[in-house]
Amino acid sequence: MITCQALLAGVFVIALAGKVRGRAALDEFVASIVALGMFPRARSVVAAYAVLGAEAVVILALVLPYTLLLGFVAATALLIVLTAGISAALRRGRRAPCRCFGASVTPLGRTHVVRNLVLTAVGCVGLAAGAAAGDAGSAAHPAGVVLALATAAVGALIVVRLDDLIGLFSTSVSPR
């Protein structure tokens, strides 16, 4: 459960920080939501700010001990909404740069859908583990906490740098 909590909280903190790190980053994020063409421009701007607010709520809910299960529910729900939005845009042939973590210029694609589905599964696992533990949970062993946090950090790094990793290991042959 600690790994799921730290992974999701870390990913959402990095995502939110990447979008609000400066005026240009925020404008690029809003422009990417507008470019997806899900709504008219004004509604797209509102949707972009709603995503930022939802990410902030998810982070708070995941880090506060008494709202952890709610945090897993909120993270999972947000990821489902984002995945549905990306999928709908792809079906309509709309591609915009993924500004999920800031400055990437990689267009949204199936990779991002799979990434979000994996994160959704992490949220479901965290929710199930938290519900199963209930109030009977004893304090975790310090070594287990360290291992859980290290695992979460590696997972978050992979999620955040996924576009770079795919670019590094993909082979593309330029047409002649």
UniProtKB/TrEMBL annotation:
It is a multi-pass membrane protein. The chain crosses the membrane at residues 46-64, 70-90, 113-133, 139-160. It holds the Pfam family MauE. GO terms for cellular component: membrane. Keywords: Membrane, Transmembrane, Transmembrane helix. It is found in: Membrane. Residues 2-128 form the Methylamine utilisation protein MauE domain. It comes from the Bacteria. One of its GO terms (biological process) is methylamine metabolic process. This is Methylamine utilisation protein MauE domain-containing protein. It comes from Streptosporangium album.
